[in-house]
Amino acid sequence: MATLASAAFAQPKLREDNIDEVLAAMTLEEKATLVVGSGWGSMNAGSMTASTKVLVPGAAGTTVAIDRLGIPPTVLSDGPAGLRIDPRREGEDKTYFCTGFPVGTVLACSWNAPLVEELTAAMGNEVLEYGADVLLAPGMNLHRNPLCGRNFEYFSEDPLLSGKISAAYVRGIQSQGVGVSVKHFAFNDQEINRMENDAQIPVRALRELYLRNFEIAVREGKPWTVMSSYNKVNGTYTQQSHDLLTGVLRDEWGFDGIVMTDWGTKDGTVAAVQAGNDLMEPGMPVETKRIVAAVNDGSLDVADLDRNVRRILEYIVKTPRFSGYKYSDNPDLEAHAALVRKAAAEGMVLLENKGGALPMAAGKVALFGLNAYKSIAGGTGSGNVNKPYIRHISEGLENAGFTLDPVVANIYKTWRDYQNAEDAGAHFLPGNALGGGLTLGEGVMPEMAVRQEVIKNSVQRNDAAVVVIGRNAGEGDDRTLEGDFDLTSEERNLLTGVCNLYHQAGKKVIVVLNVGGVVETASWKSLPDAILLAWTPGQEVGASVADILTGASNPSGKLSMTFPVNYLDIPSSANFPYYKPEHGQLIPAEYIALAEEMGYKIPEPQPVKDYDYTAYEEGLNVGYRYFNTKNAEVSYPFGYGLSYTAFEYGKPVAKVASDGSVSVSVSVRNVGGVAGKEAVQVYVAAPDGGLQKPACELKAFGKTRELAPGESETLTMKVTSYELASFNSEASEWQTAAGTYKVLVGASVEDIRGEASFKMAKAQSWPAGRLLLPKE
Ligand code: BGC
Model pTM? Predict the structure, then answer.
């Protein structure tokens, strides 16, 4: 008690250079309060301060203030497609909209790390200017399965692409003097039962796939914070895994920021503190109590608590709120919208373009599909952004000089307005931790059936038809096969009807996919003349689509994932809850007691496959690592995307430097008729012998600048010897084998344009801890 009393008398005010002194002056209660956020939906300064002022309405949470020690609160806000705050405040006319940026998948499909950095610098500026300290982003779980409901927030099926794009994302945001929270660390690869699911992953796949992307983001992006996930890994909640949060993240990768939980609470608060989960968000008073009690009864070493408190103080002194930054509440939304329009077009992927159907001159167009008139800018859930507007595809085309068929437009607008009235706004997802009260985006309205006469009558009035197909998804649930991955019968009938009737008249049909994730394409892709995969590319969706259709932008996006022929071709489909399993029936405790009194034993409910646990039996067989190695047919391969121009690749050259790193150079020439950019991919096939490997793996990539016709550029891409390594789980070490490696330089994983090779004179290895092994 003597120490507590004397601590309470010391009143140093927090500065960058007196963290030890402040820590020493803190009471146990103050320490326990600082490591627990200020509560659900609570955007005020927390319980240890007199101030109850709401700091940034709509932010996801705060760290608490301790006025006595000059510790300010800090504000944590979602993420990742822009800042999510309330757009309106009570009693004010002023609005607080934020730019709706392209979702993570679009950023990855640009294959353009510098562009991502430029874009997220603008996003970071909104974080700063609206008074937040940390953006809860990027979301970067791997696309293990295309039906994961949050894939749109995430980048890719490949850890290198995901990691490099994430690192660029982090650098962009943090260049503004605010932080990020890289999430969800880790293995949060499905939404169904995300709070409790146990991801059971073989150690090699866990290292090479699901942690590799985070490793790159941490080493190269240096994020201020990391968010642990809700789920378990191999039997332990990630937020309570010392192996993960200390062994891997800090000891192996050198992370020196803070780890916070994802929004919720679990029983094992003390285990989380011990594991190195510094901050509980959004924070519950019971968590503070547990920590105090555990220190008092000796089950928690105060040194563990002090270590976490110190890290939080180190974080706080970096924040704009600590330095008293006077934010304007007035970022340049117009400039950011222009940037979004440009960047979005770089992440869209041209999947088909028969006979050069695109670009097309602005003319008379019959625009079909509800999402043409109610376009989707981004996903739902915490990843939704309250943006000032969505530029619908219909508007984008009209602004670009197209005349939209009024009869067709009218039918859809009537349907849209009717649905809008029925749905009236906010969309809440089942099982969403965020609960009510927040606008989390709108769901997709069902597509309507269109009579063939309507299509037929429109043909002679128009030069071409554009059909928009929309899909959206979000936090709290995974996607389904029927009517989501697959087209609905209404969509199929529309597509076949439009294609038949317009083609009979010699007119073109363009399909625009305004979707958040992979959809089935193999059965219908031969029907239209062109398919533009526009994704959900942010608030300027219509403008960006129009830019591509008219050729104002030349598409240069390429797929960051594989489009399979059938969903069930994907190995992880054998262990993914697309069929919506539920937890075994829970019998109320009083009935169990009653039954036991009567001498019956009620059997424990058994863990349900893909719900209580998910076995990652496919191991490394994720995406192209599987399809390419097996030479199995896909609808569109990883890395694929068309351009309005053509590129010729020179012969690649690979050179090994004395530090074992390899540089691969290749010249790329624009041999087509219009200016364009090309995303170049470097795949490496490891020498025979040693560990069994996928046929090849992406090890580097680059994108040319915009090349005029005839112009060329030489790209030089570097691969370190560590990046070549595979994880030997027996030896628990990363190993790069000696021998001759094949370098495959391509326009996609299936379109290899040139080969080179290099020789590693000697093998190299990097020991790693024996961590994250399945529980016995
Ligand atoms: C989501 C996180 C998000 C947090 C705060 C959680 O439900 O999983 O991604 O950052 O809520 O809104």
Answer: 0.95
